[in-house]
Write a structure and sequence with these properties.
One of its GO terms (molecular function) is actin filament binding. The chain has 482 residues and is of the alpha+beta class. It is 59% helix and 10% strand. It is built from nine helices and nine strands. The strands form three sheets. It has a four-stranded antiparallel beta sheet. A three-stranded antiparallel beta sheet has the order 2-3-6. Strands 8-9 form a two-stranded antiparallel sheet.
């Protein structure tokens, strides 16, 4: 025999401390039984007489007052809405009625749900699968047979009393939603007058009275049974009343707590409203500040753009001026080199001329004594020769013009007009370029000394300063005197 582990009471997922284990397990079994059924929906229109069905509840808790029942179809009335629809059958279990669960409920709850429905009602029906033996069907069949026998006995007693003057009426209007085993009816009992002298009664009357007494005993037993049922229902109602009172007290307590919470929440809401108002004010101020800053930013951006445009224009002009100055410097440098070459060439020619003059002067000194008479004429010739040499030198080395400083003046004016202070690199470039131009201008203004070699046969040097590259005429005169 196999042994398997099961769940304990603590591990049971449907465990409920307020319900006894038997009722809890019965509800669990009812729900498990629903899982084995074929479920399908049915829509039935309720008329004035109801749905045309009677229901019965099967489960546990009828004696204890805590019912856990499954609701089943007991009978179907002829020409009723259920029979006209044709989909509902005997022994079907009603799972839901308009979304209300009907599994594990009490008979009063099921009856109340069915009575409250109106118009077209949606049922969820559970039916056992084909081939299965329906134990519920057997129990319902036995209940129906018992009810029929019970009613047959009562009807037989009622028919026996139809010939008597004293009648007793029973109205057993069974409700369509009744789930008990006994019928509920309205009973009207008539009491009979008995004569004071028993001798005046005939045997036939005595027999009739005995029969009436038996019928009254049966009625009394039925009444006692119904009284017990009513007491049980009264007890259930009292329990429900106590439960409802407890729930009412709980609801009142919950309402008071909710009111207190609502008061607190309203206070929080007022504080939140004030806080939101303050935040909106701060936000408005921040937006105004942002708009002002945005205007300033746009203005500064526009000024920066203008300054950048002016800087680009200035850089363009600066580059053009720098290029012009570099071109002028190159031209001046080439011109200076050319002039220096011409000066060296002319100095060489002058040196040759001086050598020739020296040889001529030596010859003149040798014949000085012999030709003293022609001395004056030779001086004149020497003076003329020196004048001719000075004229040739002036023609060979023309007067040099001063360098043009207009570019430097223009550059200074542009730097003054510029509003931005020059950067360190640009300032160094301008200073270096200005120093270079000043040095070139100073060099051009300083006269180049004319170096002459010593006159042969004379102790005086022939070198001296000359203005603007022209030879001094007194030098030649002093040579003549020597």
């Amino acid at each position: 025999m196999g042994v398997f582990n099961t769940y304990s009471d603590e591990e049971y997922d449907r465990r409920n401390e307020s319900v006894d284990p038997i009722s809890s397990s019965a509800e669990y079994e009812l729900e498990k039984r629903v899982e084995k059924l074929d479920l399908f929906p049915i829509d039935i229109e309720k008329d004035e007489q109801g749905f045309g069905i009677t229901i019965i509840g099967m489960g546990i808790g009828i004696d204890t007052g805590f019912e856990k029942l499954g609701i089943f179809v007991k009978t179907i009335t002829e020409d009723g809405p259920a029979e006209k629809d044709g989909r509902m059958q005997l022994n079907d279990q009603i799972i839901e009625v308009d979304g209300v669960n009907m599994v594990g409920v009490s008979q009063d709850f099921a009856s109340a749900v069915l009575r409250r429905t109106k118009g077209r009602v949606r049922f969820i029906i559970g039916r056992e699968k084909a081939g299965q033996v329906s134990e519920v069907g057997k129990l319902i069949k036995q209940t129906i047979e018992y009810d029929q026998r019970h009613r047959g006995r009562h009807y037989a007693h009622y028919e026996a009393d139809d010939d008597d003057d004293e009648t007793e009426e029973y109205a057993t209007d069974e409700d369509e939603e009744d789930i008990g085993a006994f019928s509920r009816g309205r009973k009207t009992t008539h009491f009979f007058e008995c004569p004071e002298n028993d001798d005046m009664l005939s045997p036939k009357e005595l027999e009739r009275l005995a029969q009436k007494f038996k019928e009254l005993q049966v009625k009394h037993s039925i009444t006692e049974t119904e009284i017990k049922q009513l007491k049980r229902k009264l007890q259930i109602a009292e329990n429900e009343k106590v439960r409802w009172q407890m729930e009412r007290n709980i609801l009142h307590q919950s309402i008071r707590e909710n009111k207190e919470r609502m008061a607190k929440i309203e206070g929080y809401w007022v504080e939140a409203q004030s806080l939101c108002h303050n935040v909106n004010e701060h936000l408005k101020d921040s937006q105004e500040q942002y708009q002002a800053l945005e205007k300033k930013y746009n203005k500064a951006k526009k000024l920066i753009k203008d300054f950048q445009q002016k800087e680009l224009e200035f850089m363009k002009y600066h580059d053009d001026d720098k290029k012009k100055i570099e071109d002028l410097e190159k031209a001046h440098f080439l011109e200076v080199q050319h002039l220096q070459a011409r000066i060296r060439k002319l100095e060489a020619e002058v040196f040759e001329l001086l050598k020739q003059n020296e040889s001529q002067m030596n010859n003149n000194n040798n014949i000085f004594e012999q030709q003293s008479s022609v001395g004056e004429s030779s001086k004149e010739d020497t003076a003329e020769t020196l004048d001719a040499l000075d004229q040739d030198f002036n023609e060979a080395v023309p007067e040099t013009e001063r360098l043009d400083s207009k570019a430097l003046k223009t550059r200074l004016q542009l730097s003054v007009k510029n509003k931005r202070s020059p950067t360190r690199t640009r300032l160094c470039d301008s200073i270096s370029s200005t120093d270079g131009e000043d040095s070139l201008e100073r060099k051009s203004r300083v006269p180049q000394p004319l170096v002459r070699g010593p006159v042969p046969g004379c102790g005086m040097p022939a070198t001296g300063p000359h203005k603007e590259g022209k030879p001094h005429p007194q030098d030649a005169a002093s040579d003549d005197h020597v």
